[in-house]
Design a protein that fits this description.
8 strands; 172 residues; 7 helices; alpha/beta; 4-stranded parallel beta sheet; Cobalt-precorrin-4 Transmethylase, domain 1
């Protein structure tokens, strides 16, 4: 098994070699930590939307889903919640479905090749996500790729540090 690290989503697009990898997307300050907290709070499903329009359209198709997200750290008008792990840690989301769109994190999921497994990685869920990724990689005889979301298309040190931590976890 090989471990690949992409420091921005654009690096994935430039590389066609990892089509079958297990991907761990990292937006450690917000999106992927928020996703881990959402599932810890009992959510049954989260649709990761690439943009506001896609999120709103999905919410109209299935009423009752919480519409969540932000742009440039600002809450979105008409959305139920933002993108704060602290905010979600105070909610009972048992059995709920959510839709999440963010400035950087959710877009990174869409940079990964279609039909691949994409997991949300952070310090918060490091052991769980790396254990699951290793299990999947062994079952499917494939590699693991860490994808840093970055900030507005550029390298972000916080995501890179988390990628380093996850890489260490994967080697244990």
């Amino acid at each position: 098994m090989q471990l690949n690290v992409f420091f921005t989503p654009a690096e994935i697009v430039a590389s066609a070699e990892q089509q079958n990898d297990i991907y761990i997307v990292i937006d450690v300050i917000r999106a992927t930590t928020t996703l881990a907290v959402i599932f810890d709070q009992g959510a049954s499903h989260v649709l990761v939307a690439e943009n506001v329009e896609q999120a709103q359209a999905a919410a109209q198709k299935v009423p009752g889903r919480y519409l969540c997200g932000e742009r440039n750290v600002q809450p979105l008008p008409g959305f139920d919640y933002g993108n704060s792990p602290v905010q979600f840690s105070q909610l009972d989301l048992s059995g709920r479905e959510l839709i999440l769109t963010t400035t950087n994190g959710t877009r990174a999921f869409y940079a990964c090749p279609a039909q691949t497994t994409c997991l949300a990685g952070s310090f918060y869920n490091a052991h769980a996500v790396t254990s699951h990724a290793l299990k999947l990689a062994r079952e499917h005889n494939t590699n693991i790729s860490l994808v840093c979301s970055g900030e507005l298309g550029y390298f972000a040190l916080d995501d890179a540090v988390c990628a380093g931590f996850l890489a260490l976890e994967l080697q244990r």
